[in-house]
């Protein structure tokens, strides 16, 4: 589309081009630190309501606690690294935008796919959990005909429509329901009376390490689920009012919130349920509320679990669509996906394109397989971060460009993150080696497709939007 403007001084007429997916119609900068917190915690908090407990089945209750804190260290490193690089490269796509500026096109393409697959699979896992919980509660209430599939479809399509209508409303909704879900965990912890042994029996239920230290390593696989997705705060970089302030503050406050929630969740659940049952439960916090015998807590945790799954799926749609939109805008994918809605200013084509992919996995794959697919895609992204920040610091040393935040103790966080990622790969291989190999083959095949086919459409010179000096050594 175009518009005609007149120059009164010389009578000349100029045509100003406005490209829907280009410079003129862009994403709105309307978000603050609270929205960044809501995006990060909203995506991740569902990990307290489901998924983490599979770590208990891998190695016992104490192994799950060790995995919880090891994963907490891993994600603290992720948050520190991301906060520095993303507050400097403030563009939609998060880690994808970082990769195209710092590493190169092939890495950027892969990182974009890591992000899309991790969030889309997490979205599917949330929809599965919401459908299962509604079916379970319906059965308890005597409605045996309630099925989970319609609720799965309704969850994904309804949240996609919300994302289509605007990012401010989307993340304000996330802020409210995420806060309620977090308070549900707090109230369950208080209601279980941890200062006494009226309900909680940690002395009776806590075991040692039934599978030894190998079980501890294996449990790290699902220990990541406590925090998986906190790096999604980077996807809002182009829509926050002050990236240098909002991104580090919202991300680090999010990590603190999740560490507190994870500790309370672990203690209540392992003190109420035998580890053999807890290790295979679908909704552990809801089950814990049922075991307290309190109807009020059971209702609250039902609401909290539903809100947590909705907040996570909502944030995942936001993040996956931003990554896909950014790849379309840079022609890593067809440019058609790089469109911004002229009224709602959202990447509407990318939002709706990913809906059927999420539905296929939510309706046709078991929960643990979907969770593992999301974890593996996330792990590949974290592995990239370790050398990305090294290259960033080497090419543009501190002081050479303006940074919104400088993470301390460099390069220690990158080294710790790399070692923890290697351990996590081994943990996944112990239980899901076939899926790990299949995913690696998938990413190799699509990398070859990009290198030999898609790259010819990429306009490499148009991608560098940061006003940085020439890198050191170039």
How is this structure best described in words?
The protein is mainly α and 474 residues long. The chain has a single domain (32-462), classed as Amino acid/polyamine transporter I (Up-down Bundle). It is 66% helix and 2% strand. The protein has helices spanning 33-44, 46-49, 54-59, 61-88, 95-102, 105-140, 149-165, 167-191, 202-205, 212-223, 243-270, 275-278, 284-292, 295-329, 348-353, 355-364, 367-395, 412-452, and strands at residues 2-6, 13-17. It has a two-stranded antiparallel sheet with strand order 1-2. Helix 4 (61-88) crosses helix 17 (367-395) and helix 6 (105-140) packs antiparallel against helix 14 (295-329). The longest helix has 41 residues, at 412-452. The radius of gyration is 23 Å and the shape is globular. Mean pLDDT is 86; it is low at 1-23.
Short recap of the structure:
The chain has 18 helices and two strands. It has helices spanning 33-44, 46-49, 54-59, 61-88, 95-102, 105-140, 149-165, 167-191, 202-205, 212-223, 243-270, 275-278, 284-292, 295-329, 348-353, 355-364, 367-395, 412-452; strands spanning 2-6, 13-17. The longest helix has 41 residues, at 412-452.
